[in-house]
Amino acid sequence: MRDIVGELEARVRELRRENAFLPIAVVVPSHLLGAWLAPRLFADTGHLAVGFLLLPELAWRVAEGRALAQGRGPVPENVDLALVLAAATDAAQPAETPRYLKEAVEKAGFGPALLRTLQDLGGCGLGPEDLERLAPGSADAERLRLLARTGRGFGERLDKARLLGRPAIYRLAATALPSPAVGGIVLLGFDDPPPVAAEFLAALRGSHPFAFVPEAGPLALAPRHDQRRRAFLERLDVPAAAEEPRAPGSSLQRLQQRLFERRPGTPTGGETPLDATVHVLAAAGEAMEAVEIARLVQQAVGEGLRPGQVAVLLRDPARYAAPLASAFERAALPAFFVEGEPRVDPAAQGLGLLLGLVGRDLERAAVMELLTTARVPWESLLGKDAEISPSRWDRLSAQAGIVSGLHAWRARIAEARKRREERGFADDRDLRLYDSLLRLVERLDRDLAALPAEGGWDDFLGATLGLLDAWIDRGRLVRERLERVLGPLGRFAPAPTREAFLARVRELLATQVYREGSIEDDRVLVSSIDGARGLSFRVVFVPGLVERAFPTVARPDPLLLDEEREALGPGLRTKRDAQEEERLLFARAVRAAGERLVLSFPRFDTGSGRERVPSSFLLQAVEAAMGRRVAAAELLGLASPGETGLGRPHPREPDAAIDRIERDLAAVATGGAGAARHLLDADGFVAASIALERAAWEPRLTPFDGLVDLGGDEAAASRLAPGGRRSSATEVQTLAGCPYRHLLDRGFRLEPWEEPERVFQLDALSFGSLYHTVAQRLFTWLRDAGLLPVERARLAQIEERLRAIVDEAAGELVAEGKILNEALLAPAKGAIRSALSELLQREADAEDGFVPAAFEQRFEGVEVPLGDGRTISFAGLIDRADLASRPKKSVRVVDYKTGKPQWKDGEQFRGGRELQLAIYNRAAAKLFEKTAVSEALYYYATPGGRYAQKGCPASPEVDETLVRVLRTLDETARAGVFAPVADSCDFCDFQAICGRTREARAGRKKGDPRLAAFLKLREIP
Ligand code: SF4
């Protein structure tokens, strides 16, 4: 491995030969290299007055005095982008600018691309006048003119803001030499800087003690780069690094010496197989590639290597950072992600949610997402005695039916609070929660309003930071970043719209990353290749070696085409330079390996399932290492598949596992007797899930099927069985439909989560409820007005009243916020009017002698003795009771239905599921004691229901069947048998719990004797 520290120490000694205290500035290509070198340089004695700087930092140090004397400063991060965008917008104004360019200026991504192009030009000392000179000969002259106008506008804006771009700083620095701000210079590894930087370095070379430590390696990798490099070195009058001697060595040495060297047909000599210094790995996808890398690192660390001696060098850190972070965490390996770890910063996430509420209407779902997921400093917002429970707030606000709007929050919380108060609980926590929630939402509304609709960067930023400080805990990192990036824009950039400001903040929050550790910690280094430039490691991994990823597809600059770049000057880079840059990157990565290099690639694109083509770089690396041509098929054969594969996310041997999950999976997969015994011992979930799986296949009911051992617990039995207590027709029908549903509903009190939402159309349930309200009010009015029985002659008058009642009831729905506005109710109102109008006509024509007499009649204490000493006491409401006086005094119950009748011939109890009408007959007998009950009926009183009626006679046979069904239901519940019978699931809210195989599973349990009596009910027609 190259001794870069030794070389650097030698140069420093040379420069200090005459002055031992000469301050030395070591110009490094990355801060990381500087941080690594600092403690190693003269490690025995320590060093004095040696600093490490990037080249732009050195240039500013030299230029600073003159710049400040002129009242100028360097352009801050992001301000250049804002200025260039403003300049481009102005430059696109002239009428001759083609439409496609005007549109391009508006597009995201245009600004950064434009800035890069202008920086390229500035780095080569080229300006707007050069572009204008070139324009007349171009097929797309207007593009070049737009670029020239933008460049000029950008320069003017920089001037006006008294800012200096990087090229201007280099030029100014070159005029300020020699400089008292620096002593001796050691230039480390820079061999192809842009021309203005090269000018500055050449001037430094002539004015200060100067030394150069060139980047190592053969020069034939990239001809254009090499040409510039030679010219640069000649200009500095320093020799190029000597070619490293070629001695037969390891595969790694051969690879490093001969990479990209061989021409087709040229023998490279000395054919050797790959030894252990070069390893090729082909994992199934990127995630598995990361896991295999972690496994190899773990093994190496197990053999004595320190994590800090390993690096993973990435062409595309954004693509690999997440899988590598996950794999290293699983393998318990400490890692230092130079470009940051892709971990979500909770404060950034919280602020994102908070800003998502700006300009909105306090939508409940969005407010609750903020309150339930962000780290909110509750105490400072609400005081230390406030009741706090985000999850309960979520439930309470949903139950209160809040959709959005401060008015709705206030009104609905007040209503819900009042209802709760009426229940008279002592020390009611929910009341305190309503109070704290309302205070919170009111404060949120006020604070959000503090973000102005218009203003400058400073106004928006100040308000955003105010929101951050008030609402988000531990937001220091986010605050610092927003201040650093957006702060300078207030001074230099034109005012944004609020949307543009928020979009920029969202962008910053989305890219907020964590960086934990440093180069000095003993951690595996994960870095972009350039980020680790100059560093060496004992083991280096280079993942992602597939075509189009490494090398990437080089694309020409669409704003300044390659031929235009070549016409403007030799310093401007083109697509060919970008292609060369890929080779140089790969060469730098492989040269960073001191003892072992692992080159890896994912065999499949796990998103599309397509096979990936190994990179040509990988092929050439293997050829260089082996000293001969290698066919693509042979390369695949040379690649180790790693321990995992598609369909096998674990190694074959448990000992090779990186974590417990892999070890357990491998242990189970070996199939050895007792290999996975520990899972049952240590983890209750595994045992329970195996028991569940077995129980599903047993023909008998088990506790997994809703078999509840009540163990003689009367209290539990009384809650679940209807006998001996008050019940309702709905409850016993639920139990009759499915005992398991009854257990979930009444036993576990499970409720479907209903998110309140803006209603644009009435659903069937709300339509039915509106219909019932209107019918009840209409018939009550008819009765009170003495208009019953209905007569045809009065229909016109009644219709008028019907219209008014429909309007009134619909208006109430709107006022309650159950639908957005009354206009949306027009179809439902029309349908209800015409349905009831038809019903009235039929009432007028009816000759059955029944006259509607009572409406929405409540009943209580309707006792049904079960014949075993128990009684069920029913309570409920009947829609309507009609009385007839001929042939004898009788009553019938009418229950309105707004759906369609689904009865088969001869059906009455529908297998025990339909009990309501029989219970209504009992209720009528109690309500109208001296009147004979004739029947209870469902009246499908809409055109859709064809005004059909389904009656249930109040006969002794029906009543006897009712009692038999109720007794069976009571006994089933009392025995603790709550099986999911799965024959009436259509409108059940618990389908997700029972799963799609519920019917097959229920079918297997049908033979259980404990279910026999219940299933016998299904035979009742
Ligand atoms: S989904 Fe079917 S089986 Fe399950 S609880 Fe509901 S009705 Fe019963």
Give an overview of the whole structure:
The protein is an alpha/beta fold. It is built from 42 helices and 18 strands. Helix 2 (31-37) links the parallel strand 1 (24-27) and strand 2 (50-53). Helix 15 crosses helix 21. It is elongated, with a radius of gyration of 41 Å. The model has no long low-confidence stretch (mean pLDDT 90). Iron/sulfur cluster is lined by residues 738, 740-741, 980, 982, 984-985, 988, 990-991, 994, 998.
- Could you give the count of β-strands? 18
Cofactors and ligands: iron/sulfur cluster
Q: Tell me the radius of gyration.
A: 41 Å
**Assembly annotation:** single chain
Percent of residues in beta strands? 5-15%
Shape: elongated
Which consecutive residue ranges, at least 5 long each, have pLDDT under 50?
none
End-to-end Cα distance: 90 Å
How are the SSEs placed, and which strands pair?
Layout: H1 4-15, E1 24-27, H2 31-37, E2 50-53, H3 55-69, E3 73-74, H4 79-91, H5 99-106, H6 110-123, H7 128-134, H8 141-160, E4 163-164, H9 166-175, E5 184-188, H10 195-207, E6 210-213, H11 223-236, H12 251-258, E7 278-283, H13 286-302, E8 310-314, H14 317-330, E9 335-337, H15 346-355, H16 364-373, H17 378-382, H18 390-399, H19 406-422, H20 429-449, H21 457-471, H22 476-486, H23 489-492, H24 498-510, E10 524-528, E11 537-542, H25 562-568, H26 575-591, E12 593-602, H27 616-626, H28 632-638, H29 660-670, H30 677-682, H31 684-697, H32 714-720, E13 726-727, H33 729-737, H34 739-747, H35 764-784, H36 795-815, H37 826-845, E14 851-865, E15 871-884, E16 890-897, H38 916-927, E17 932-940, E18 948-953, H39 956-974, H40 991-994, H41 998-1005, H42 1012-1017
Parallel strand pairs: 1-2, 1-5, 3-4, 5-6, 7-12, 8-10, 8-11, 9-10, 11-12, 13-15, 16-17
Antiparallel strand pairs: 14-15, 15-16, 17-18
This protein binds iron/sulfur cluster.
Residues 738, 740-741, 980, 982, 984-985, 988, 990-991, 994, 998 line the site of iron/sulfur cluster.
